[in-house]
Structures are given as structure tokens and as C-alpha cells.
Amino acid sequence: MYSPPGVKTKHNDFPIPDRMRAWVLGDPGQLSFTEKPVPVPKKAEVLVRIDAVAICATDLEIIYHGPPASIQGGLPFNKNFTPGHEYMGRVVALGPGVDEYQIGQRVAVEIHAGCGQCKRCREGMYTSCHNYGLNYGDVDKGHRANGFTTDGGFCEYQVNNINTLVSIADEMSDEEGTLVVTAGTAMYALTELGGLVAGESVCVTGPGPIGLMAAAVAKALGAHPVILTGTRDNRLEIGRQLGADAVVNIRKTPDVVAEVKRLNGGKGVDYVVECSAATGAVNDAVRMVNRGGRVCLAAFAHEDVPVDVAHIVRNNIYLYGIRGEGKSATHRAEAFMRQKRFDATKIHTHTFPLDDLPTAIRYAKDRVEDAIKVVVKANMGAAQKEAAE
Prior knowledge:
Shape: globular
Number of strands: 18
Number of helices: 12
Low-confidence stretches: none
CATH architecture of the largest domain: Alpha-Beta Complex
């Protein structure tokens, strides 16, 4: 029976085994289902029983290519590393001195727990912690990013710093709970662009999960118009349902920049949130905004991107890069979801059991059946498994 010294549990309500099922990354693209010891929370940490975890495009980058994960100072392959970071569940054990959360409480999690000591952490920019990836094996030093520099969520239990926890309503489904961090990333993008976007015009490029959530959050914050661009009509339609005032299929539009300006009354928009990672997307974005406009880059490009710096300088355009869901944006996003300001479940398309993670990854990677957000659950009921099959 799991009973580490100094750790509070309630085995009658939430029994915890000594070992758990977990997926481990071997060579690139190779995952094996094995067992690991259930981790032990330390000071300012809790143990979360993982009920559901969503697959993010960054998980696919890590599993197949390595970065931005950093394990033991290098690539994550063949290091007994468990990826996955967009998870939710219940607090089932409390580390020494923890009283901020209760056993049994439902939570979603942020990825990053900054060291709390470096310049950026003291500014509240813990997703830009200067100790990122530098203290593997010495988590007492501070920084951890589950699924990136420490074990993540493709397993049954995980340790989280209390600063990464976001309480979620009991009425919220497990699947919706995994989307809180996705909405939080979109909220962070808009926070960095200025925060107050009511009455401002916003264009979101790329209707992936973050792009769709960016359109939803922008509209919930009062932006007008909200324009969404992309290549798939089905995703653009979901964007409309989430609040986009206009959508543009760039494959059917000869000049997407001109079309965005037309939809905004003939002038550039105030803000662009770039979520596509397309090679030409940055140059399109800086031409979509008006003079003095702001562009947030929220996607990892896969190659060097040409940028018209002269246009940016001449027009006093501001570029921001964001990493993850910083500045407590996830808490604000969860509040919007709790109030039903938008329906995040519209981007959830498929659910699989944890032991069928490879199939779930294939659906997410190859967009099988127009998959958008694919979720795996550790304890699916028979009816749910049958529906997934």
C-alpha cells in the first residue's frame, strides 16, 4: 500500500497502488506500455490521479523528434521518460505542509512550475524560467515542466506543484477538463497582446486546437470582428460556432491579407494570433495588422521562417512569442469555461483508453476522421470503450 512518510492520503476513498501503468518513450516514435512506481509528492506538491489526458501537437513533436523536451540535458529518447502534459484528474495525496487543496478535488494542470527564484519567475513569467531543463533529477531546485523536463501524463498518477493546479467544476466533463490548458494558452496569447481586446479587431491564423480556442477567447473578451483563417472548412465552421465573426479558407482565397482587410472595413486588424506554423504565416500576419498592430506567435515553426523586418520596422509592428500558458492565464480561461462563455468541447472529437495510446496518437497525427483534440482516459467504462472502437 502506498504510504510515503509525511504524505497525506485517504485510502478508503482513493486507494493508491505502489505501482502504476505508464507509457515510456524509447526510440523516436516508439512507446512501450510498462509499469513505474507511483511518484511521491514533496513540499508544495500533490499527487494527481490522472483521469484524462489530451494529445497536443507538441506531444507529437516530442515523441517523434525530441524537442522541446529536455531530459538529462538532451533528447528524451530511451531515458524512461513519460510524455504527455494536457491532463486533468483528482488530487489523491498531499505532500508535506500542503493545505491549499483537498484530497478528492478535481483539477486541471498547467505544465510549467518555475523555479521561483530566477528573474523571469519573480516577474510571473514562469513559462520562461531560466532554469528550464537544467535541473533534471534535482526537482527540489524548483523548475519542472511535466511532459517536457519531467515525467508527464500518459500514465495513471503524476506529481504536480500546487502552483500548476487549476480547480475545475464538478459539472465539467473529464474531456473538457483537459482543454482548460489549451484555452489557457489562447488566453495567454491575448494577455501578452494587451489583455483588453474588447472592441478591437483580431485575426487568428490556423484553426488547430489553440487557434480555435483563441477565436473563442477573443470573442468572449469582446473582440470584434474576430476573423479565423485556415485550410479546412469543417474546422472553420467549428470556429464560427465558437464565436468567429468571419472565416477565410486560404485555399479558396487568392489574397488572404486583402480578404482579412476587406472583412475589417478595408484596414488591417489590431491583433493577429498566429497558430498555423506555416512558413509564410509570419509575413502574412505582419501585413494583416494595421500600423502599430501586434502579432503573437503561438506555434512552433518546423523550419527557418523568412520575415520582412523592414515592413515590421517601418510600420511599428510588435511581435510576441509565447510559450505555453503563462501568467496564470489558465485560471482565467477556466473561469470563462465554468461560466459557459464558450463551449470548448466542440474541439474534442475522439476518446480512447490509455492502453490504446498508439491508436489515439495515430488519429491525432494523421487527423483520422477529421480528429482535432484526441483524449485518452485511464479508466474508461465498457460503454465508453465500445463507443471509441
